[in-house]
Amino acid sequence: MSPNRFALPARILHWLMAALILAMLLIGAGMISTTTDRYPELLAWHRPIGLAILILALVRLAVRLTHRAPPLPADLPAIQVAAAKGSHYLLYTLMIAMPLIGWAMQSAGGYPIILWKGFTLFPILPHDIVVYGWLRFTHGLLAYAFFLLILGHLGAALFHGLIRRDGVFSSMAG
Amino acid sequence: MTTPIRTLPRLAVIAAILAAVVAVFAWVGGFLSPARISGSGVADSLQTANGKIYPGFRRAHAKGLCVSGHFDANGAGVALSRAALFPAGSVPVIGRFSTGGGDPSASDGRNVFHALGLRFALPHGEEWRMAIDHTPIFIVSNPADFLALQQAAIPDPKTGKPDPDRMKAFVAAHPETRQFMDYMKTAPLPSSFANGTYYSIDAFRFANAQGQSRFVRWQFEPETPFAALDKATLDQQPTNFLFDDLLARMQKAPLKWHMVVVLANSGDRTDNATVRWTGPHRQVDVGTLILDHAATEETGGCRDYNYDPLILPKGVSGSDDPILAARSAVYSASFRRRAIEGPRPDAITKAESPAKSQEGAR
């Protein structure tokens, strides 16, 4: 028997992380666009939410590996199957890589990694600002890639839900 | 079976939802607000005003020298803030003395604006970073004015100097900027990095263990007696005279400053770095900064930090001063740029290196 829906923990994690990741992309884009008080405020939120996403993504990966996902519709064209599978590998990769790169780049930049006032995280890379520079560049680039991927994911989900109406959308939303 | 007639409106709905998400992102990211000022925008304006990019160097305060030592707290600060810097004891400090401007090999006589970046390494990974200046006031009160000032300072391609009329117009419209420029012209400025008082510029908020919070500014007052800079002979001074002076002094003896916290009175402006706090104020000497080691940026270990004044420990937070948040954002943009360009040998290292490389050859 194949399930026709994702397991409950997978569904909870999906929607919680959808909200957090979208918030995170908006916080990141917003904070680098301004020199007002919003800059330090958003930056202060960016780090703890990033760490929360990292922890949740690792939990989610474990859930994904231990629970069977509903199969894709049998009549889905091969190209769409490949796109679905590939995009999900990328989404998981970015969910884990983006916070790790953020943490690593702040470490290499010689910054204290302040989760909240008075609580700092240990560095995961030695202080080297050239490494910081490249990681910081990568972090911004991948943020755009992540955003585009999420747009594609959302578009595909709506396509399944509104046009194909093949049960894929309700397997996560239902 | 769906027909195109039923599919099209649904595709349109999907497209509209995606477009709305993109629009929200574009709006939040400032892509729809050309007037919004970003840290990168100010870094761009500094580069333009500098006349060129000096890769690997800070976009402002490009010329510097590393110092290190410790801060010996006397315990008096505990009543004001729960910051881990204040209980009686000693914490290690790394610092960087610098002159204003974006040219890393500028002559010290041309840039008499002195600054000091400090990084206090507190217990449990906490840090307190400061970027303090030898003037009690700042040149503008908000980032938009700072941007306009940089634009007024863009060198004219014909003369290589800023258009004096543009600068005159800016200063005429900004009495606080005129006040700063007059201060630089008429006030006695310190003749050395060692005998200047360094001010926090912005107001900050201290919170103590009892939960009381108050606005403060602070200053580092030198034990070295003040001597005034001779402004008439600046052009005849050697290129690195300020930095050479500091190196020579530090070879003889450690240099000391007292950190004096100034408590705001009820009428004080906390949101405007161009306005001095005048009249009597309660001041608390919270400890002594002792700098006992100096080295060039190549070897001194201070170059690769961003002295962001909003990297603060528990017990200290920013104020409503718009310059403070802007400094944080702009320093970050500058740091990002110079980091990826990769550090380059600084002027003081280069000035000292002929002797060093000969020693190495022997």
UniProtKB/TrEMBL annotation, chain A:
Signal peptide: none annotated. InterPro entries: Cyt_b561_bac/Ni-Hgenase, Cytochrome_b561_oxidase, Di-haem_cyt_TM. Belongs to the cytochrome b561 family. The keyword Transmembrane applies. This is Cytochrome b. Its cofactor is heme b. It is a multi-pass membrane protein. SUPFAM superfamilies: Transmembrane di-heme cytochromes. It is found in: Cell membrane. The chain crosses the membrane at residues 12-32, 44-63, 89-108, 114-135, 142-163. It comes from the Bacteria. Residues 5-172 form the Cytochrome b561 bacterial/Ni-hydrogenase domain.
TrEMBL record, chain B:
Keywords: Heme, Iron, Metal-binding, Oxidoreductase, Peroxidase. It is an enzyme of class 1 (oxidoreductase). CDD domains: srpA_like. Belongs to the catalase family. It comes from the Bacteria. Its cofactor is heme. Its EC number is 1.11.1.-. This is Catalase-related peroxidase. Residues 342-362 are annotated as: Disordered. GO terms for molecular function: peroxidase activity. Residues 35-362 form the Catalase core domain.
